[in-house]
């Protein structure tokens, strides 16, 4: 029978303990201003992460830009110039005339501090599946996600779509502030169909997690929901809910039947102001008067 050498069982963390002590001894022997325990290097003036002159978070060189470092907004559209100069005072004035918003700073100007964002993952959190595409250089992996933004005061946006106004209403008597959708609305995307139904005050939002986040960001407090189709495709589920919320302004209830005077659009009302104060910049230099 072959003889085997006896080996004593050592503690599991013995190597880690010795390695730690060795590092401590080397650190004690190294001078304070050296790099690697000897001469040269960058010296002791450079701090660590989060220190007075370190990297990363904190007061080091890795800190983000503050408000003083942000560039001043210089609008490039007529609508942006009117918003910056205070001629248009709310988003509702823009939606009233269906003016296209081509600058994100316009949204930040009105409801920037109140905006909240939420990432809606396409797949369940416990099972994230990457989407791959075969290219000449190899496989390209991407993860798909939708981002919802809202101010909980009647404005909602999804993904790359624009922010739309949300109309809220009552269930039964008109007491207090609007708390639910004004009527039954339906939105569809792909095979998913979402129906929003008004609910009494105090009911809450009775829905799946994805529509519930969108409705909460839109400022709707009470609502029943009904969904059909492949709701496991959460991207289409979120888009269908967004389409249903956007349709709240499509149905004219009797309180909107009254005739309203047809006002001028902001472009017509402030045409002289735009011509006087905001002339288009041309590439030609003005000729000097002789």
TrEMBL record:
Superkingdom classification of source: Eukaryota
Compositionally biased region (Basic residues): 52-64
Residue spans of biased composition, Gly residues class: 35-51
Pfam families: Ribosomal_S5, Ribosomal_S5_C
Domain S5 DRBM: 121-160
CC annotations in GO: cytosolic small ribosomal subunit
Region (Disordered): 35-71
Record keywords: Ribonucleoprotein, Ribosomal protein
GO BP terms, alphabetized: translation
GO MF term list: RNA binding; structural constituent of ribosome
Family listed: Belongs to the universal ribosomal protein uS5 family.
Official protein name in the record: Small ribosomal subunit protein uS5
Native organism: Popillia japonica (Japanese beetle)
């Amino acid at each position: 029978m072959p003889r085997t050498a006896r080996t004593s069982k050592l503690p599991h963390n013995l190597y880690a303990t010795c390695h730690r002590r060795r590092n401590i001894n080397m650190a004690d022997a190294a001078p304070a201003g050296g790099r690697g325990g000897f001469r040269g290097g960058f010296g002791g003036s450079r701090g660590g992460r989060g220190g007075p002159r370190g990297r990363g978070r904190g007061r080091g060189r890795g800190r983000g830009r503050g408000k003083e470092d942000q560039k001043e907004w210089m609008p490039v559209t007529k609508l942006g110039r009117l918003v910056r100069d205070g001629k248009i005072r709310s988003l509702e004035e823009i939606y009233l005339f269906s003016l296209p918003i081509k600058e994100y700073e316009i949204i930040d100007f009105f409801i920037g501090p109140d905006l909240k964002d939420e990432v809606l993952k396409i797949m369940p959190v416990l099972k994230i599946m990457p989407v791959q595409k075969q290219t000449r250089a190899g496989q390209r992996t991407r993860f798909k996600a939708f981002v919802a933004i809202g101010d909980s005061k009647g404005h909602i946006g999804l993904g790359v779509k624009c922010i739309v106004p949300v109309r809220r209403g009552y269930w039964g008597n008109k007491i207090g502030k609007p708390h639910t959708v004004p009527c039954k609305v339906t939105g569809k995307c792909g095979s998913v169909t979402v129906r929003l139904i008004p609910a009494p005050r105090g009911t809450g939002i009775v829905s799946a997690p994805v529509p519930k986040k969108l409705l909460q960001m839109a400022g709707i407090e009470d609502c029943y929901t009904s969904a059909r189709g492949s709701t496991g495709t959460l991207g289409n589920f979120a888009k269908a809910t967004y389409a249903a919320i956007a349709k709240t302004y499509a149905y004219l209830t009797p309180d909107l039947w009254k005739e309203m005077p047809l006002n001028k659009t902001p472009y017509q009302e402030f045409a002289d102001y735009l011509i006087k104060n905001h002339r288009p910049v041309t590439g030609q230099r003005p000729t000097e008067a002789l």
